[in-house]
Here is the input.
Amino acid sequence: MTTTAERAVGQPIGRVEGPDKVRGAARYAAEYPVGDDLAYAWVAQSPVARGTLTDVTVDPLVEADDVLAVLWHGNAPRLAEADDPELAVFQSDRISYRGQALALVVARTLEAARRAAATLQLDIEQEPHDSVLRTDHPELYTPEKVNPNFPSDTASGDVEAALAGAPVTVDVTYRTPPLHNSPMEPHATTALWADDDLVLYDSNQHPPGVAASIGGLFGLPADRVHVITEHVGGGFGSKGTARPNAVLAAMAAKVTGRPVRLALPRQALFSMVGHRTPTIQRVRLAATADGHLTAIDHDVVEQSSRLFEFAEQTAVSTRHMYAAANRRTGHRLVRLDMPTPRWMRAPGEAPGMVALECAMDELAVVLDLDPIELRVRNEPSVEPESGTPFSSRHYVECLRRGAERFGWHDRDPRPKQRREGDWWIGTGVAGATYPTMAQPSTARVRRLSGDSYEVSIAATDLGTGARTILTQIAADALEVPVSQVRMRIGDSTLPRASVAGGSSGSASWGWAVTGACRSLRESGREEATFDSSELIKQQEKDGKHAFGAHFAEVRVDAMTGEVRVSRLFGMYAAGRILNPRTARSQFLGGMIMGMGMALHEESVLDPAQGTWVNHDLAEYHIPVHADIESIEAEWLDEQDDQLNPMGSKGIGEIGIVGSPAAILNAIWHATGVRVRDLPARLDKILPHL
Ligand code: MOS
Here is the structure.
């Protein structure tokens, strides 16, 4: 019997695949040796935002040079209809966004493929395009639902009357720019056909999902597509579903009869794999003189593409953050000639909580009330819109304990009071939240010789530590040490797993792994399989969220307006923490991404070209080591038995929610300048200093 003290869950175990990664033995999608006849592919992307492609001509001199095939809609194999129109590559002459794949060169060497792609003549009939999001766009509409399945608009009470009658109101508009995921490992696929079966080494967040959608396109059942995703260098949502690289590689392998490798260059990630929609958010708050909210109104304008309706759930977290009798949230979309927005870490919550949590800070200033106290006074006892009790909510405790740990109590609330040399210094706070989800998955466990066990599930580890955590969970459920557990993941032929997304991986897969291991132990059999579908269906209800509080200290250069974040601190209540080492790394990673959102990251639109002009890490700025000074994450010991067998909430995304607002609020406190248009570049601060 394993005692609590010996349990693996809760221990700061190092990543089980860490030594392989350090030695370079861990293989990524573009690194598998698949034979001497391996060919390389390079994508020719559209130079225009809208039009038709009428012809593709290959320079005969270049063509002779090791080129095996040039594919485009004029000669490409027909695919079955795709659920995701961006996967219908080369199926029509329509150009729907700049950067769309128009042709693919397959060659014996990477250099030859790239050279030939650069010399392709693309005959295009260009059409006028529209790429600018604005609040007075004539084609704005209300989508039926926002992701994943929420009503677009909600309303209760009388917001206008409450606003008109309140002694204190705030009416502010915040803008967030388009953002792009930048996983360390760009999207890549190595594809080969074995007889009529397809093998894909592909970098993604959901091998069974990729197998099903690529299989569908090529007329194969999912079990005849083998997707191998042993290691992934980050995804953040951009690898949540199959991306065009997987289709293109599979198509090229089919046409040439060779294994084909397609590793997207970094630049292509800025058009072919998705982005976070820009948002324009108006928040109106009404409160009594003692700081009780009487109305909350959060109105969002955001974009999608002509191809696909992607409606980000930007105002959804506002539905459960604070109590107020009169409330309204709404989303309006316009479909532009741009790539389709996709998931990016905390889709919805990350931009939405910028507007809400900065507006709360602005309200605290008007009320002359401490921003923590304002939040505490508006703590709801149940979910304000659904009336559902929270399974657990320790938001106030995060604010209070965080304030102690950060050193908030002697803060002078007035802005622009503290100066050290050339630097204005200030502090800020903001709330964080993220839903707690679990999705059906199946796991299998087998007893091997010599007292060890093999546990299998088609999950993926994006670098988060999922493989390690599942090993810990299995060890406890089997009541054996972790050294006796061999975890197999990253392969679509293993028992079906849900996506590594929505911060739901550990909960979803851990549930299935626990079930399989317990069943094996209880039955005494050599093998057991467990499907969590029924249990998850029984437990589905609202009211499950992780909460947190973010604190920032910034200094702003009085001469240049440059912002430095001298301290960033997160206090979380996210259920049981399964592995403190990997969890801390998740929280800090999210917070660093939040810092990027506050200060550095923006995809800059050129409306004339209908594209973003910055498309590499030299010009799309993300925080680097030198930007990080003191950054810390801590958590409360939160017990919640209504979630899953581990008692865990998702932790992958909450770190990015609230940390940008904490930094923006600290910039105001340091300087008296409210930046309502992210990122807080120095040119937006300096003129007002
Ligand atoms: Mo995350 S944006 O749900 O992969």
Summary: The two ends are 65 Å apart (CA to CA). The chain has a mean pLDDT of 96.
